[in-house]
């Protein structure tokens, strides 16, 4: 079959169709808008030429320009994101450091609270059996642990103010409000402890006085037998110790009544004794000094200056025998029994006079609630009350010492240690018990001393203070 002849028009049509259907050089493309009947370009003579034109260099298109700008933005964003990450890392490190500080502080707080519990347990353990030394050590340990807690509280506040530790949640209850009930309970326990301590001290003094009286009664027959009915220096020394124990027990009883009545012991003792008392422990010695001074006032006279009798000058030997007989007869008697039979005897007059000087009306009303004791004593009677019974036991102990002193030949002389005097261990003993430090002087005298005829000395009891200091 003969092929169709190709004319010039057909060639022009093919070239035009090929240009419209293929991309122009330099990447410029025109979409086909003219329909072509020649979809197959296998016979296109310009196919190779058109495909090779793609290899020429092209200018940047708008899409490539946008792409390059996007790359720059990405680079800037990377830098910004890098700075933010550094800041986040620094903030995280700072927060971790704060958390470590808070954890360390809380660990110290827990340790301090545990220390308070241990110290308080030791304080309770010192009560039974009663051990004053352990009590003082445990009390000091409790105070030290509480001070440690206070320092931790101040440290927390400073750290929170400086921003080192996050501030507590405002909705949470403040620490002081949380601790307040425990502080109130601790104060109540301390008051109870002081009251119990005063009660125990009073009972110990009563026990010492009762033991001394029992030992004295047991010792009396043998001493009488050994001495042939004559008083001895050793007996006087023993009775002097019993008198001191009795006055110390009554002083402790007075302090216990003051605490029970709600009276400020330190201020009341300072007002009553005229001694600059600054602590409850010092009040105990100051009250003992007041009781001793009141009961022994006029000790150098044969009747405590209750009358103008001078029987010792008329017949000294008979007077001494009479005094020693009174001492032996009265030694085994209860003072209330004696005064129940003879309320106006010499000892009754002595007890009435000393009670009036020992307790001023305002003190009696403060601790006893009324003045019934004073009215009864002024009326010539002696009340049968526990309080007055305690007073009579102390008064009897001093009266017995006075009888024995004037039964001796020569009678012992008593001496006091004045305030500011140098401490002399051969004439004085400290109420603290421990050997005094160098440079200590007498703050006030608690009990007088006695010098006996054979040269023996019953040492005075004194409260010592540093030189230039005050009690």
From TrEMBL:
Residue stretches of biased makeup (Acidic residues): 35-46
Lineage: superkingdom: Eukaryota
Pfam families: DUF641, GIL1_IRKI_C
Ranges annotated as biased composition (Basic residues): 214-223
InterPro entries: DUF641_pln (IPR006943), GIL1-like (IPR040225), GIL1_IRKI_C (IPR056813)
Biased composition (Low complexity): 47-64
Domain annotation DUF641: ranges: 98-215
Region named Disordered: 34-72, 209-230
GO terms (BP aspect): negative gravitropism; response to red or far red light
Residues of the GIL1/IRKI C-terminal domain: 415-463
Entry-linked PANTHER family: PROTEIN GRAVITROPIC IN THE LIGHT 1 (PTHR31161)
Full protein name: DUF641 domain-containing protein
């Amino acid at each position: 079959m003969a092929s169709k002849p190709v004319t010039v028009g057909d060639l022009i049509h093919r070239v035009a169709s090929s240009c419209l259907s293929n991309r122009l050089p330099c990447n410029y493309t025109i979409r086909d808008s003219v329909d072509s009947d020649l979809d197959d370009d296998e016979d296109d003579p310009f196919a190779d030429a058109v495909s090779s034109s793609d290899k020429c260099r092209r200018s940047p298109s708008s899409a490539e320009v946008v792409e390059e700008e996007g790359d720059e933005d990405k680079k800037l964003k990377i830098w910004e994101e890098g700075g933010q990450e550094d800041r986040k890392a620094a903030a995280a490190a700072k927060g971790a450091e704060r958390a470590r500080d808070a954890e360390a502080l809380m660990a110290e707080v827990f340790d301090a609270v545990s220390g308070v519990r241990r110290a308080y347990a030791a304080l309770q353990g010192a009560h039974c059996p009663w051990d004053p030394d352990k009590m003082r050590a445990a009390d000091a340990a409790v105070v030290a642990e509480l001070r440690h807690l206070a320092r931790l509280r101040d440290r927390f506040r400073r750290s929170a103010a400086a921003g080192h530790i996050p501030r507590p949640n405002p909705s949470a209850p403040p620490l002081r409000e949380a601790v307040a009930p425990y502080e109130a309970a601790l104060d109540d326990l301390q008051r109870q402890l002081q009251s119990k301590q005063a009660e125990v001290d009073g009972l110990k003094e009563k026990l010492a006085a009762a033991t001394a009286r029992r030992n004295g009664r047991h010792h009396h027959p043998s001493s009488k037998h050994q001495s042939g009915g004559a008083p001895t220096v050793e007996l006087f020394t023993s009775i002097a110790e019993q008198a001191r124990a009795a006055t110390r027990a009554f002083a402790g009883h007075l302090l216990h009544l003051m605490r029970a009545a709600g009276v400020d012991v330190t201020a009341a003792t300072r007002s009553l004794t005229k001694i600059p008392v600054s602590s409850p422990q010092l009040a105990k010695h100051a009250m003992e000094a007041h009781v001793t001074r009141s009961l022994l006032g006029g000790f150098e006279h044969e009747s405590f200056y209750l009358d103008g009798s001078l029987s010792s000058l008329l017949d000294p030997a008979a007077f001494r025998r009479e005094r020693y007989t009174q001492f032996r007869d009265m030694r085994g008697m209860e003072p209330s029994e004696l005064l129940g039979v003879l309320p106006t005897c010499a000892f009754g007059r002595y007890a009435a006079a000393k009670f009036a000087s020992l307790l001023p009306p305002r003190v009696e009303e403060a601790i006893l609630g009324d003045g019934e004791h004073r009215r009864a004593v002024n009326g010539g009677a002696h009340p049968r009350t526990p309080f007055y019974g305690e007073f009579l036991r102390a008064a009897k102990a001093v009266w017995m010492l006075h009888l024995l002193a004037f039964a001796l030949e020569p009678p012992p002389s008593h001496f006091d240690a004045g305030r500011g005097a140098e401490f002399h261990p051969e004439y004085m003993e400290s109420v603290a018990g421990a050997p005094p430090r160098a440079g200590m002087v007498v703050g006030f005298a608690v009990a007088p001393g006695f010098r006996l005829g054979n040269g023996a000395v019953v040492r005075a009891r004194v409260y010592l203070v540093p030189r230039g200091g005050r009690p």
